[in-house]
């Protein structure tokens, strides 16, 4: 693993992936994306692992795309599914992972960072943290599979609110809106996720893989077409002049926040 991503076995059969790019507050830099990809590759090839827990550091889970990446898409030099040669996208890695994935979303999850969490099999949120799909605040339609996974995991009514309004929600607010996830104080989130992981790890690995494959088959079959549709929507919405203006004006550099 690289310096911004750590993968380790914390108990027999339980892998813990910690995202910890403190300089960039877990935005999707090239180093961050490559680190996540390498971690999932290790999980794929390590047959000791039965369950993967993903978490961030301090107040941050994952903060979505960098300003440079957004500008590159706006200028037609990239799209969110093909950022640059050799740089992977990570949105559906938890979905594609053979073993169950638990997202311990102890900190803020923004844009693609929130979509990344929602592709996990189990999601635990923090009461205090901010969760937002802020794509439309910049003026472009959502990407990272958000138009599929938000309705699938949250229900269409709440998904429309989050995606269209692009408002910020605390975990406690989402709990009151009836989300189907557990919500705890931030300091308890990882512990609760690891407790769940221990229960999962009691089961045979082959049985876990077989059952997950059945349960997520519909999502896996649907996502490639959804990504194509989202890229097509970006071709319509991303290149508006006001989008570039909004990115320049509204994007907050995490190193200066």
Explained architecture:
It is a single chain. The chain is α/β, with parallel strands linked by helices. The chain has one domain (5-188): 2-enoyl-CoA Hydratase, Chain A, domain 1. It is built from 12 helices and 10 strands. It has helices at residues 30-45, 67-74, 93-96, 112-118, 135-138, 146-154, 156-165, 171-176, 186-201, 205-215, 217-237, 241-250; strands spanning 5-11, 14-19, 51-55, 60-62, 101-105, 108-110, 122-126, 130-132, 169-170, 182-184. Strands 1-2-3-5-7-10 form a 6-stranded mixed β-sheet, sandwiched between helices. Strands 4-6-8-9 form a 4-stranded mixed β-sheet. Strand 2, helix 1 (30-45) and strand 3 (51-55) form a beta-alpha-beta unit. Helix 2 runs antiparallel to helix 12 and helix 6 crosses helix 7 (156-165). The protein starts with a strand and ends in a 7-residue tail after the last helix. The relative contact order is 0.15. The mean pLDDT is 93.
What can be said about this structure in brief?
47% of the residues lie in helices and 16% in strands. With 257 residues, it is of the alpha/beta class. It has a six-stranded mixed sheet with strand order 1-2-3-5-7-10, sandwiched between helices. Strands 4-6-8-9 form a four-stranded mixed sheet.
List keywords for this structure.
2-enoyl-CoA Hydratase, Chain A, domain 1, alpha/beta, four-stranded mixed sheet, 257 residues, 47% helix, 12 helices, globular
Percentage of residues in helical conformation:
40-55%
Number of helices: 12
Q: What is the molecular shape?
A: globular
Number of strands: 10
Query: What name does the CATH topology carry?
Result: 2-enoyl-CoA Hydratase, Chain A, domain 1
> Strand-and-helix sequence, N→C?
EEHEEHHEEHEEHHHEHEHHHH
The CATH architecture term is Alpha-Beta Complex
The CATH superfamily bears the name 2-enoyl-CoA Hydratase, Chain A, domain 1
Mean pLDDT: 93
Q: How is the largest sheet built, in terms of strand order?
A: 1-2-3-5-7-10
Q: If you compute it from the alpha carbons, what radius of gyration comes out, rounded to the nearest whole angstrom?
A: 17 Å
Query: Sheet bearing the most strands, described?
Result: 6 strands, mixed
Report the structural category: alpha/beta
Terminal Cα separation, in Å? 27 Å
What is the highest CATH level, the class? Answer: Alpha Beta
Number of domains: 1
Low-confidence stretches: none
How much strand? 15-25%
């Amino acid at each position: 693993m690289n310096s911004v991503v750590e993968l380790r076995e914390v108990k027999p059969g339980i892998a813990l992936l910690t995202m910890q790019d403190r300089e960039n507050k877990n935005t999707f830099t090239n180093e961050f994306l490559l680190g996540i990809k390498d971690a999932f590759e290790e999980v794929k090839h390590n047959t000791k692992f039965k369950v993967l827990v993903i978490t961030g550091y301090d107040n941050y889970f994952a903060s979505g795309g960098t300003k440079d990446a957004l500008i590159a898409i706006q200028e037609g030099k990239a799209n969110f599914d093909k950022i640059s040669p050799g740089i992977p996208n990570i949105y559906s890695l938890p979905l594609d992972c053979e073993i169950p994935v638990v997202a311990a979303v102890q900190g803020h999850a923004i844009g693609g960072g929130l979509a990344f969490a929602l592709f996990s099999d189990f999601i635990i949120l923090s009461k205090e943290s901010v969760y937002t799909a802020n794509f439309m605040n910049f003026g472009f339609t959502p990407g990272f599979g958000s138009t599929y996974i938000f309705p699938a995991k949250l229900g269409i009514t709440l998904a429309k609110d989050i995606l269209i309004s692009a408002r910020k929600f605390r975990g406690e607010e989402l709990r009151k809106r009836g989300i189907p996830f557990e919500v705890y104080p931030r300091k308890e989130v990882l512990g609760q996720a690891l407790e769940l992981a221990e229960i999962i790890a009691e089961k045979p690995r082959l049985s876990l893989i077989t059952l997950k494959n059945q349960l997520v088959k519909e999502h896996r079959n649907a996502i490639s077409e959804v990504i194509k549709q989202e890229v097509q929507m970006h071709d319509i919405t991303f290149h508006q002049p006001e989008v570039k203006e909004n990115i320049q004006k509204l994007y907050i550099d995490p190193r200066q926040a």
